[in-house]
Model the fold of this input.
Amino acid sequence: QVQLVESGGGLVQAGGSLRLSCTASGSFFRINFMGWYRQAPGKQREWVASITDNGSTNYADSLKGRFTISRDNAKNTVYLQMNSLKPEDTAVYYCKHILSGSWGQGTQVTVSS
Done:
């Protein structure tokens, strides 16, 4: 079983930046394939980005160029750097261990206009 804990959310003005972290623990060999998702109020959870254990990345088309996913395997941590934030980026951001289906508890990101 994999436990995931997100951190780094908060309130930021439009145009600002935040870096989210997701640290994994539990019985697993390595954190492997990881993803970030987000859920805005009244909307379905949507995929944001993912990263494989060899560092290959993919992004939702609408977020390319502003968001960057990365990982530090030694720390069992995956990051989401978010730049040029917009009010529509306001959501709870979750990380997911893709292979086990485990989710973190989420971290709130609020972008004010």
In short: The chain has a mean pLDDT of 93. The first strand starts at residue 2 and ends at 7.
